[in-house]
Amino acid sequence: MTAYVALMRGINVGTAKQIKMPALKDVFTELGLDDPQTLLRSGNVVFRSSQTLDAAYADHIEAAVLEATGVQSSVVLFDESEFTRIASEDPLQQIATDPARHVIGFSSVPIENPDSISMPSAKDIAPELIVVGRQAIYQWCPDGISKSKVKPGFWKQFDGVITTRNRRTVDKLLAMIG
Q1: Nearest-CA neighbor of 100 among 29, 5, 149, 169?
Q2: With 70 as the cut, is the pLDDT of residue 12 above it?
Q3: Neighbours of 141 (CB within 10 A)
Q4: In this predicted structure, what is the pLDDT of residue 42?
Q5: Looking at residue 126, which CATH number applies to its domain?
Q6: How many CB atoms are closer than 10 A to CB 55?
Q7: To 5 degrees, how large is the angle CA 80–CA 83–CA 89?
Q8: Shared domain check, 160 and 96
Q9: What CA–CA distance (Å, rounded) separates 128 from 132?
Q10: Whether 91 and 173 share a structural domain
């Protein structure tokens, strides 16, 4: 049985897109997925399946969540090996000293040519750091995520869906699939 991580984008932020975690777990159970577990209230779901699920299965989850809760939320889906690989490729792990200010932007599709991304000037965003990987964007925000100097337009360059999680949450998800 393979473990999977489903990351929902933008739920339970402020008063919009509210979903209770027991209701979310029920959606995964009704889809025939095994042992769904949620982490926090931000749409992190770890589950298991004997079937091989590809990234396109995220659309199936999105539709089921919409039908059950009335909430539209994009889902980024990884199997345990993909999620572990993305987390382990994090080039900022040794630099970022506070996991709450160290984020990973998970992409629903591979970033075909990371070197072609228009990066913000290191001088303009200092002391922040940002690195684009094969399927994630790694960011260190020592002054806090809400004070990030990276402009919103940077994130619009990427295909697919990007949803971010801080390193503390990523490490908890790794423990859940381990």
Answers
A1: 169
A2: no
A3: 23
A4: 78
A5: 3.30.70
A6: 17
A7: 135
A8: yes
A9: 14
A10: yes
Which residue, 17, 52, 82, sits at the end of a domain? 82
Sequence-separated contacts (24+) of 85-88 with Cβ below 8 Å: 86/133, 86/135, 86/136, 87/170, 87/171, 87/174
Same domain, 166 and 116: yes
Measured CA to CA in angstroms, residue 57 lies from 23, 41, 62, 153 at distances of 19, 22, 9, 28
Amino acid type, 80: E
Tell me the two tokens of residue 177. Answer: 């699939």
Which of 82, 107, 130 delimits the end of a domain? 82
Sign of CA dihedral 55, 76, 28, 66: negative
Does one domain contain both 65 and 143? no
Confidence of residue 3 (pLDDT cuts 50, 70, 90): very high
Q: pLDDT tens across 76-129, in order? A: 999 999 999 999 999 999 999 999 999 999 999 999 888 889 999 999 999 999
Q: How many domains does the chain have?
A: 2
